[in-house]
């Protein structure tokens, strides 16, 4: 048994600067991060599986209308909502993902079902929705996902007046020493109908392998796809002799040289974590066994690694 569990979460990294948030808004965002950590922590403290913990943590963030995943997802150019989600278990490299789904209240649950109940890794669109329905997942009408804030943003982005994005994710090392990761997103605002980002692509926006680390990314998905970012971090750790933090930093630097930015959370098989970003802030949280939950949104990553 590993001595301790470690759980790290993020809820996106774009546009997080103090002048955009009142004290109440800041408090509200941080409260949701705490709730997400608490949900994951409950699973881990009880000796539960890392996979269940990351799903529980992500589900809280999907249910929150403030973040770009599940309820509160951004709109496509056509004004619809198309969500992507994924999960991966580091013990056996089992993975499940859904892309371009609508009407599924918790896409991360659909991804978990693909992992447990199908021989496939990635289901998309109506096929994924049908699969989720057959397995009894809760559905929700378009009005459930659409928030007035996202609609305003959508109208502004359509006029080229701004750009915000986000994704939610969680990585953990459980008490049995197994790594797991989960990600869920509405994608980038005003995306083309049918566009799929890095979040449901194993090795790009998410990866987990007990031989190295668990990773969840946020940022401009096209760059994370082109760098195979998450798998690259795992490879640098497993084969390159990099520390987790050095590997994650190297990959974010690789992404910067392509012209992209974003954030990464990761945990390795010794429970060391990396929480880094090249934006001005990132919604983030971390908890270890026996320690208080830590959450933040503004400023540099700080010394939580
Ligand atoms: N990576 C996500 C995507 O490209 C968006 C984000 O993380 O902000 O779909």
Which regions are unreliable across 5 or more consecutive residues at pLDDT < 50?
none
Strand content: 15-25%
Rounded to an integer, what's the Rg over CA atoms? Answer: 17 Å
Average residue-wise pLDDT: 93
Instruction: Assign the CATH class.
Output: Alpha Beta
Oligomer: single chain
- Quickly count the helices: 9
User: What hetero molecules are bound to the protein chains?
Assistant: aspartic acid
Characterize the main sheet.
8 strands, mixed
Assigned CATH superfamily: (Glycosyl)asparaginase
What order do the strands of the largest sheet run in, or round the barrel if closed?
4-3-2-6-5-1-11-12
Count structural domains.
Answer: 1
As a percent range, the share of helical residues equals 25-40%
For the record, the CATH architecture stands as: 4-Layer Sandwich
Count the strands? 12
SSE series: EHHEEHEHHHEEEEHHHEEEE
Walk me through this protein's architecture.
This protein is of the alpha+beta class. It has one domain (6-298): Glutamine Phosphoribosylpyrophosphate, subunit 1, domain 1, CATH 3.60.20. The protein is built from nine helices and twelve strands. It has helices at residues 23-45, 50-63, 107-117, 125-134, 142-145, 148-158, 221-226, 229-239, 244-258, and strands at residues 6-10, 83-89, 95-101, 122-124, 168-173, 179-185, 206-208, 213-219, 262-268, 273-277, 281-288, 294-298. It has an eight-stranded mixed sheet with strand order 4-3-2-6-5-1-11-12. It is globular and about 45 Å long. It starts with 5 loop residues before the first strand and ends in a 7-residue tail after the last strand. The mean pLDDT is 93. Bound molecules: aspartic acid. Residues 12, 14, 165-167, 185, 187-188, 197-199, 205, 218-219, 221 line the site of aspartic acid.
């Amino acid at each position: 048994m590993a001595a301790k569990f470690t759980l790290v979460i993020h809820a996106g990294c774009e546009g997080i600067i103090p002048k955009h948030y009142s004290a109440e808004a800041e408090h509200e965002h941080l409260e949701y991060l705490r709730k997400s950590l608490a949900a994951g922590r409950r699973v881990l403290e009880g000796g539960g599986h890392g996979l269940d913990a990351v799903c529980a943590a992500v589900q809280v963030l999907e249910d929150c209308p403030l973040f770009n995943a599940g309820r509160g997802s951004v709109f496509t150019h056509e004004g619809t909502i198309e969500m992507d989600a994924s999960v991966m278990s580091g013990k056996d490299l089992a993975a499940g993902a859904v892309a371009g789904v609508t009407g599924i209240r918790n896409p991360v649950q659909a991804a978990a079902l693909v992992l447990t109940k199908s021989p496939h890794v990635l289901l998309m669109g109506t096929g994924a929705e049908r699969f989720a329905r057959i397995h009894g997942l809760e559905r929700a009408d378009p009005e459930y996902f659409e928030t007035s804030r996202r609609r305003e943003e959508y109208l502004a982005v359509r006029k080229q007046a701004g750009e915000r994005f986000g994704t939610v994710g969680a990585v953990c090392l459980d008490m049995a020493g197994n790594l797991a990761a989960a990600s869920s997103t509405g994608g980038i605002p005003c995306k083309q109908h049918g566009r799929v980002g890095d979040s449901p692509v194993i090795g790009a926006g998410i990866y987990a392998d007990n031989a190295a680390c668990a990773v969840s990314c946020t940022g401009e998905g096209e760059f994370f796809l082109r760098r195979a970012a998450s798998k690259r971090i795992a490879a640098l750790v497993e084969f390159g002799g990099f520390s987790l933090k050095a590997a994650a930093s190297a990959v974010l630097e690789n992404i910067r040289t392509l012209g992209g930015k974003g954030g990464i959370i990761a945990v390795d098989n010794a429970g060391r974590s990396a929480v880094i970003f090249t934006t001005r802030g990132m919604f983030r949280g971390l908890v270890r066994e026996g320690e208080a939950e830590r959450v933040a949104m503004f400023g540099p990553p700080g010394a939580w690694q």
